[in-house]
Design a protein that fits this description.
mainly alpha, 3-stranded mixed sheet, 10 helices, 6% strand, 3 strands
């Protein structure tokens, strides 16, 4: 797995497997994927291995025993795998990036709960609260505007978003608004996300992108989740 600083590969593997376990019950895509994790030279990312043609590579910039950072970064990249990400950039990639930010927040809380009950090592048990604190601090310090509304924000920032999908501050704002939907119904939500990019993603308005997503979802509970997302943006499909 590479050089991760002051931690062993076995320790890191336990933390990453625990993170992955928070999504596996809700995603058929993940159950089919082979994933290898490597240290990143720059920012975290996920990509398909052109060398082996049989696995995805996730690179993480976290090091040593900063478990919260590992969980946060790994969950974000796992979110891309769930969404069936495509390598080409498209106008609505900002929304997928926001879902992946939400995946990080989702994982931090779920890992905190499971770590308390069953830590990777018994002597690590008291660390469980750090994941919750890390999530809370990220949300508190997000600088999300008071009375933030996704519909008006989208209309004001649509052109910027299509050009710059990874505006992390704004991605986090969207994630915070979507997070309750994911946590209220994780099976419907994450299984719906598997269909996000299953159809054409190029040259679509955000409204058409959501409409395609709705049509692609095979189950009614998944469609209901997409409708809830549409309601957040005051979009009718």
């Amino acid at each position: 797995m590479g050089d991760w600083g002051q931690t062993s590969s076995s320790e890191l593997e336990k933390v990453l497997c625990l993170t992955l376990d928070q999504f596996l019950p809700y995603s058929q895509n993940l159950k089919k994927q082979k994933v290898r994790v490597l240290p990143a030279k720059e920012a975290p990312r996920v990509y398909y291995s052109e060398l082996t043609k049989a696995e995805y590579i996730i690179e993480l910039s976290a090091r040593d025993r900063f478990w919260c950072q590992y969980v946060f970064q790994f969950a974000h990249e796992v979110g891309h795998l769930i969404c069936g990400f495509k390598t080409q950039t498209h106008a609505n990639l900002w929304f997928e990036e926001s879902l992946c930010e939400a995946a990080s927040l989702f994982a931090l809380q779920q890992v905190s709960k499971q770590w308390k009950l069953s830590p990777p090592y018994p002597v690590w048990k008291n660390y469980f609260s750090e994941f919750f604190n890390y999530r809370r601090e990220r949300m508190i310090n997000s600088s999300i505007p008071e009375n933030f509304q996704l519909d008006s924000w989208l209309q004001q920032n649509r052109n910027t978003l299509t050009r710059s999908p990874d505006l992390r501050k704004q991605n986090l704002w969207v994630a915070i608004k979507i997070l309750p939907l994911l946590e209220n119904s994780p099976l419907a939500a994450w299984s719906a996300c598997e269909w996000l990019n299953s159809r054409n993603t190029q040259d679509l308005t955000f409204e058409s992108y959501l409409s395609n997503w709705y049509d692609a979802c095979p189950k009614q509970n998944q469609k209901n989740f997409v409708l809830e997302v549409c309601n957040l943006f005051s979009i009718e499909i």
